[in-house]
Design goal:
InterPro entries: Catenin-bd_sf (IPR027397), CTNNB1-bd_N (IPR013558), HMG_box_dom (IPR009071), HMG_box_dom_sf (IPR036910), TCF/LEF (IPR024940). One of its GO terms (biological process) is canonical Wnt signaling pathway. About 40% of the residues lie in helices and about 0% in strands. With about 550 residues, it is mostly helical. The protein has two domains: about 200 residues, no CATH class; about 230 residues, DNA Binding (I), subunit A, CATH 1.10.30.10. A hairpin with a 7-residue loop joins strand 1 and strand 2. Helix 3 runs parallel beside helix 5 and helix 11 crosses helix 12. The protein binds a DNA duplex (15 and 15 nucleotides) through helix 11, helix 12 and helix 13.
Amino acid sequence: MPQLNGGGGDDLGANDEMISFKDEGEQEEKISENVSAERDLDDVKSSLVNESENNSSSSDSEVKRRPQPRPDTESYEKAREYFSEALRRQQDGGFFKSPHYPGYPFLMIPDLASPYLSNGALSPSARTYLQMKWPLLDVPSSAALKDSRSPTPGHLSNKVPVVQHAHMHPLTPLITYSNDHFSPTTPPAHLSPEILDPKTGIPRTPHPSELSPYYPLSPGAVGQIPHPLGWLVPQQGQPMYSIPPGGFRHPYPALAMNASMSSLVSSRFSPHVVPHHPHVHVINYKEDEKKPHIKKPLNAFMLYMKEMRAKVVAECTLKESAAINQILGRRWHSLSREEQAKYYELARKERQLHSQLYPGWSARDNYGKRKKRKRDNKADSTAEDFSARNKKPCVQYLPQEKMIDSPASSHGSMLDSPATPSAALASPAAPAPTHSEQAQPLSLTTKPERHHPHFSLISKPSAASSSSSSSSTSSSSSASSSSSHPSLSLPIGSSGSQSTPPLLSRPIPFTSLHPSLLSPPSPFHQAALHSHHALFQSQPLSLVTKSAD
DNA sequence: TAGCCTTTGAAGTGT
DNA sequence: ACACTTCAAAGGCTA
């Protein structure tokens, strides 16, 4: 039960969420066992030193060196693997790679310009980034990672590096390539074991020839690049960003990418790449008649969804995204302030990278590219629309075995575990202002339930009195999404809903889901469940206030 | 096969 | 300034 106070940045729940272990069944176990993992840190680091010296670590020896197997061995192994790889890659002048899935190269150092200090050590922000991913671990200091062959400031430190590292693209620090390490089950099929380094047993960065198959350039995929934070998000083969007309518009056009890097970047980022040779990809900047579609950077919630989707799907066998997203939406609210902060930070980096990749891009560019939704009649998106739009109750997507007859209990886990109230008050993540310098939106919004069929039909009766009118009133205004969140993020009092669980009446499907699906199982959330019960009940009031305005 | 559903957040447009 | 709209992911579903 470590760190139940949840005050620290290394919130275990957050860690758990972020890491997304392969075996979901171990999730809860890991939460409670993270302390042991923490105890193993010293062992990890010390063993890494030896390992880096020997450079011939085998999984067997690693296991032997391990003090003792613990339930959290996976965390241990991952951490260990990560640092081993970090050391090795540093020495090789190559990539860091996913601590989760072998065979997928990626760079998780956040600094766009200089992930390394002059002494070859990770920069503070890079360390922060790593520590964010591995909150329980001490990111190796300069001494640990320092290596003569490591990228030097000359390679990376400047905003405009003069000389590119053999494998380093100026943006690679933020360009990550891992795809599916969040998959709750097994690594993607393409992450074949052959990628493992035969010597060390540690996954190595695949050669471009090995990578190319991982990044198929289907015609449809042309024009897009994978998610720069791919290590965080399962991409399922779908690239993310596209390259603007004229090719890869790099902020530092003077820089030349070597074949290795360009193949990586181009195969993943360029819409016009044609892998003529397994080892050398040539970028063909053929002019498209159309402007390639550059997608918006993912926001915090989208990043969270991508990370957690597989987990939720695995847990409940749901595949319908609408239902999954509903679960994820509630889980998102159940995240602690620190947990959400991580995603806000990632999203901020996403936007940062995106803005650097596509300086002239604007979200406006994508307006109208997608089929316009037929919500013109916004007005009727209210009560009447409830029934019309919700012809597919998510309950139908739920496996029967998930159905339980104790909605009340489920409600509690689902609704009563919102983010901490303080989070709503203080935007913690304090996400650095983006180029737009916007204040970090409060994720802990008291956004009312959208006109959900179950909510409107089921919860209303129970919700009764106070919330019923407010919910309906707010539904129209809130239907327009979260842009209004900040304005109504603070619930105003809780009139009358103190004892009754009206708002706890959620859509049936969720009430029937296992609580673990609805909110992280961490003790923190259980605590939050109780401490913030009143807050959630007050949500409708905030809406009333807003609508009143 | 295009679009819907569903979520939150970012960023756009409109008033 | 505020309200509203669109899009970002995702995959089953529907017309």
